[in-house]
Amino acid sequence: MLQTAEDIRLVNEKIQSAGAFIDRLRAEVNKVIVGQTYMIDRLLIGLLSNGHVLLEGVPGLAKTLSIKSLSLAVNAQFSRIQFTPDLLPADVVGTMIYNQQRNEFVVRKGPIFANFILADEINRAPAKVQSALLEAMQERQITIGETSYKLDEPFLVLATQNPIEQEGTYPLPEAQVDRFMLKVVVGYPKKEEEQKIIRQNVQGFGDVKIQPVVSINEVLQARDLVRQVYMDEKIENYILDIVFATRFPEKYKLEKLKPLIAYGGSPRASINLALASKAVAFLNKRAYVIPEDIRTIAHDVLRHRIGLTYEAEAEGLDVVSIIDDVLKAVNVP
Predict the structure, then answer these.
(1) Are residues 300 and 41 in contact, defined by beta-carbon separation less than 8 angstroms?
(2) Among 79, 189, 197, 265, which residue's Cβ finds the most Cβ atoms within 10 Å?
(3) Which of 205, 160, 179 is nearest to 34 (CA)?
(4) How far is CA 110 from the centre of its chain?
């Protein structure tokens, strides 16, 4: 749909007023979280563009705390599910139980029936649990017995996984990994940030309570505005070129990448790159997408959607360097 300059100006005005809640949200989360601006911004992008987020990092980087703090700051229902090898689908979605007084089976809903789902150490649960979660993530519904139940909006799965530990973990199926809009690799804090973390913990910052500062309505209105953010056809083509360069690198003068990439980004990569870049523009209080918005979020959208060959692994190459090469090769509009 073509938008006139006047349409863009009106959306811009709405974003300026509606976007104020982002500052409130950040300020509230920062009462507890020191640094980790990159991770918090990615969680906000997931929230604004209705996409699930996978956080990967070693233990102790405040992944779980960040997700919990964000959900408490939004006045929404929060569920934490600790994934373990003995977890059953019924532990996540719920089950039918027999009610003796009423002489019938009734549904007991599981913890998945919430707005924010923290799937802690998601790669520890077996395939049956992953398939139950997959239905919730993709269809936004849950089937118990013969009945399907729609999940309330917003519904967001924010998952964590530890990349180091391999014992007692199951690699996530590619189909499920592809359902995550973003895969965010969480790094260590800076030295001065860690000093502040030490001081806060030694002085007992556990008394700090996150207050709900944003309503579900504000989040849903912001999501509508994110979709109205203007994206020029040149920007759309830029997204397509980036994704197609991961599939057919030789067409973009990247012949050296052809033996290194087993498979490129799926159409979900294009869709999510467009949606996430609109959310980046919204966070910057802008009603139109610029190429820099796409470059900002490209690594998080693509890193779990590109498969590397054994040759790439033998050469010690990782997905990040492949994405860097693609971004350098594709012409910026």
Answers:
(1) no
(2) 265
(3) 205
(4) 22
**How many Cα atoms sit within 13 Å of 211 on the Cβ side?**
3
Phi/psi at 74 (5° precision)? -95, 130
Q: Is 271 helix (H, G, I), strand (E, B) or coil?
A: helix
pTM above 0.85, yes or no: yes
* Residue 52 identity: H
Single-letter residue type at 44: L
**Token duo for residue 63:** 């992944």
Least confident of 5-19, 118-132, 171-185, 316-330: 5-19
Select from 315, 198, 213, 194 the least CA-distant residue to 256. 315
- The 10s digit of each residue's pLDDT in 67-92 is 888 888 888 888 899 988 888 888 88
Task: Output the six-digit token pair for 280.
Answer: 């980046």
Helix or strand run (H / E) with residue 184: strand 180-185
Strands 78-82 and 307-308 turn out to be unpaired
Q: Which residue has the higher pLDDT, 156 or 96?
A: 156
- Lowest mean pLDDT segment, chosen from 60-64, 79-83, 132-136, 276-280: 60-64
Helices (H), 164-308: 174-177, 191-202, 216-228, 233-247, 267-283, 291-302
Helix boundaries (H) for 74-114 = 89-93
SS3 of residue 116 by DSSP = strand
Residue 299's DSSP bridge partners are none
Three-class DSSP category at 121: coil
User: Hey, what domains does the chain have and what are their CATH numbers?
Assistant: 34-204 (3.40.50.300), 225-329 (1.10.8.80)
d(CA 154, CA 76): 9
Residue 92 in contact with residue 129, Cβ under 8 Å? yes
Q: Please state, in angstroms and rounded to a whole number, the distance separating the CA atoms of residues 326 and 243.
A: 9
